Please model this.
Amino acid sequence: MKVGIAYPAFKECFEDLLETEITDISFYSEPLDDTEMLKILFELDLVIFSGGEDISPGVYGQENTHSSGINIKRDQIEIKILELSRKIDAKILGVCRGHQIINAFFGGNLCQDIFLSGKKYHESIHNLDWKYFGYMSKNFKTVNSLHHQGVISPGYGFSPVAYKDEIIEATIYKNKIFSVQWHPEFMTEKFKEFKNLINSWVEEKNTIFDFVSSSKINIEEKEKQELINELMSELQTDFVGVETVSTDHDEL
Model:
């Protein structure tokens, strides 16, 4: 799997998470033109937008009220890479700041300070409210929190799938973009679960919706139970008068 990162913040942590070398795309952002940058992006299976400084409120049409440490240069680089990544329909993973800039770029809106605005303070470790029950709600019910800003309305066409209070903590866009507010690259105890998700998604074995929603799992379980019932019915027919075993197979 070939992975690039739009800006090198936490690059080594993502390399540990995904167990692969990651290309720093920002290194090539100047003085290359769009054509040269597209050639680089075409070689990648996944583009990561990582965490870091607050993004400029101008990106989502606000005046600066509670944003700090703004890195205009980084904003410009990431927006350019995001534009080009979408042109080639690349798979994109956004984390923390990446989650925010992706949704803002597509027309979403942010709260500049969730504590001062009354949206509530997010503890360093907190639970999520997932919209669906599935792989993600099971394995990422509790996540870390290193942010004071948050997405309050998603980008156009984005599906919010997890919340903490009024803050949107995860979004999906057409199985091409998956963004989360927390830092999976710091959750070493969950490296395997997140890496499995990314590998399966990038290799197109499953969609992100498969991991977020239980719909596919439910279908498989239903089919499995129907097969069990059919087999038990045959056994009962073949061994009339013989006490059959229980058909309670919740553990399967």
The first strand starts at residue 3 and ends at 5. The chain has two domains: 3-212, 215-252. Confidence is low (pLDDT under 50) at residues 215-224, 239-252.
